[in-house]
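Risk register update: the risk that structure generation would not scale has been downgraded. Supporting records follow, first protein first.
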Amino acid sequence: MAAESFAVASAFDRAISELEQLESRPYCHRIATALLVKNCQQLFDVDTASEVDSTSSRDLVDAYAISLAICDLERGRIPIPYQCKSFQETSLAKLSPRKGHGLHVSSEEVNQCIQAFAADNKMWETWHNYRHRTEVYCQVAGADREKDSTVQFYKHIASIMAEFFDSVDKNQDRLSEFHKRHLNDAHTAYEKLFSNIEDIQDAISTLRSHISQSNAAAEVLIWSKLDDSELTL
C-alpha cells in the first residue's frame, strides 16, 4: 500500500511538473495535452475503470500520444503519413479543450496511424515516448479525487489547467482571427482579380470591335481603289 501511494505521488509530481512547463511549449503541444486531460477527466467521471485499460481510455492515450508525436515531427519538418491527418494541429484546433468532446477519431483511425508510424523508426520512437507520458496524464485525471492524498493535487492541477485553458482559448481566438483575416484578404483579392478580368474582357471586346471596323473600312477602301482603277482603264 505504501509503495502504491508513493508511485501515485510520483506520478502526480511528474504530471504537475510537466503541466507547469506546458505554457512554454508550442501551441500544438498545449492543445493536444489539454484535450487529453479534459477528455480523460470526463471519461473517468462516467467510467468505473480505475486504470487505463478500457478500450476508450486506451484509444485516448494512443491518440493524443500520436498528436504530441506529430507536433515534434512537424517541427522537424518530417512528412506525416496521410493516415494521421486527423491527429494534426489543424484538426485539434477546431476542438475546445475547456468543454471536451470525447475522442474525435475512431479506434480504426488510431490503429491505422500507429501502423503507419511503425513503418518508420523515428516516428515509432517519438510516439512510444509520448505514449507513457500521456498514460500518466490520463491516470492522474482519472484518480479518486476524494482521497486525501489527491485533494491537494486536484486543487493544484485545477488551477494550472484553468490558466492553461485560458491560454489555449486565446490562441484559438488569435488563430480564428488570423484565418478570418486572410480569408477576407483572399476574397478581396479574388474580387479584384475578377474585376480586372472583366475589364480585360471588355478591353478585348472593344479591341475586336475596332479591328472589325478597321477591316471593314480597309475593305471598302480597297474596293473603292479597284473601282477607280477599272474606270481609269
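Supporting record for the second protein:
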Amino acid sequence: TITTIQGIEYHYTNYDVDLEVDGKVFQSNGPIISREGISLSLGIEVDNLSITIETTESTMFGEVPVAQAFHNGILDGSRFKLERIFMDINTPTDTSAGTMVLFEGRIIEPEFDRYEIKASVVSEIDDLKVQMPRNLYQPGCLNTLFDQACGLLSSEFAVDTTIGA
C-alpha cells in the first residue's frame, strides 16, 4: 500500500488476480514492487526497507504515470506499507483472515529512470534519532548547586574576604 500525503491510497498485490481485503481492493495489474529482505525482532530497532518499483507508461498513480508521479514530487512524503495477506489454500481468493503488517514507513530518496524506481522506506522509529527541538538548550548540569545530587560542598568554595570602599 502506498499512501500519499493527501491520504490517497494505492493498494497492490503480486498475486495473479485482484484481491479484496477488509473492503480494500489490492490490484494485480499495478506496478511490480520488489523488495529486499526484512528482519523481525522484539524491541525498538530501526530498520530500512529497500524497494524497487518496475513500471510501464500505462501504469498510473491516479491520472499520472508512476515514474512521472515520482519525478513531479506527487509522492514526496508518501508512506509505504508492506502487508502479508492470509488465504485459505482450498479457496485462494478467500482473504477473510486479513493481513499482517510486516513493515511500514516513509518513502525517501527515490532514484528513478523511465521504467524503474529504487527507493528506501524508513521506519517511523528513525525519527527518534533527531533531537527535539532541533536546537536544544539546557544547562550542563541539571542539579541545584550544592544539593545532595550535586555532590559539591559550599564550604569548599567559600571565600572569607573584606571589601573596602
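The chain has one helix and eleven strands. On this basis the risk owner (M.S.) recommends closing the item.
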